[in-house]
Amino acid sequence: MTESGHRRPTIKSVAQAAGVSTATVSYVLSGRNGNAAGSGVSPATALRVQEAARALGYRPNQAARTIRTGKTDLMMLSLTMISDPWSLDVSRAVGAAAAARGITPMILADTDWRVALRRQNADVTFIDAADREGDAELLALAAQRQRLVVFSETLEPNGFDVVRSLAGESCQQAVDHLCAKHSRVAVLTSRVHSPTTRSIRFDAYTAGLQRAGLPFREDYVATYRKDALSAVEAATRLLLNPDRPTAIYATTDYAAIGAIHAAQRLQLRVPEDVEVVGIGNTTEGEDMVPSLTTVGPLGFFDALAEFLVERAANPGGPATVLEFPWQLILRNSA
Q1: If residue 126 lies in a helix (H) or strand (E), which one and from where to where?
Q2: Strand residue runs (E) in 161-306
Q3: Is 89:282 a contact under the CB 8 Å cutoff?
Q4: Are strands 275-279 and 293-296 parallel, antiparallel or unpaired?
Q5: Which residues contact 207 (CB under 8 A, 6 or more apart)?
Q6: Quick one: DSSP state of residue 218?
Q7: What are 94-106's pLDDT values in tens digits?
Q8: DSSP 70-85
Q9: Average pLDDT score over the chain
Q10: 266 phi/psi in degrees, rounded to 5
Q11: Closest among 128, 125, 120 to 90, alpha carbons compared
């Protein structure tokens, strides 16, 4: 019963209002209509069902449907930094693809996915940052039949899918591109590195300096926290160096965008006074002025969205690796 005392509309009442079978109503309102060839449901019939549902104020009983089908129609996105242009592009692409399939995306913004996934099930969960320290937790969640898709440059599929960026060679190309023109090349990196730490993106920088015969300088390494302001501040420190670098290699697009903003605040011209390269191939980097030279895959966000939607619709099957070859994309900042 509703608060006004009237019975809640059911699939049967929607079917009667639309003049179709309950099976047709169930099919249309599941979000599958138009995604499967030969469904037998015409666009006109689907529209009539949707209009009847809206007129009656029909809302599906999600709890009952989950019990009946084992599906939640939910997709969770664990995005470490929601303000990162990369995260924004992921959420936009996934949101559009999920809506077309009747799936609701939930964003875990700056939230520990380990805690969230113990409390809430989803048909599929995308985790944008995981390493071997979280491997045991991923295995435990996969054993509970949670479908996980993990973005990682190091993990192997083990009950969960892995989305892998083949970024190493392209990052090296980016550093070589800068070192071919500059003797003072700095790096913006998201964490402190030492000789014992391994990072594909940072290692590309040190290896590129060696290939070019350039010294590694501690004062050309700036570390930023995971927020845009910190990236601007770190880039500003580099650009205020008395022996100012004339090129900056940033390990993310958002840090590179911060470096361009820092240069502009200091009335330095990009690329004339300082060249900047990022990593990620984000929409914001492409659209800004000057457009950002970057390393990244083409078509990544739409392809990732389709993969996640397919996993949500068909969660069975063996864990796999989805690999995206990256490339150096030359634009106006370098």
Answers
A1: strand 124-127
A2: 161-166, 185-189, 221-223, 247-250, 275-279, 293-296
A3: yes
A4: parallel
A5: 172, 175
A6: G
A7: 999 998 888 888 8
A8: S---EEEEEES-TTSH
A9: 85
A10: -90, 10
A11: 128
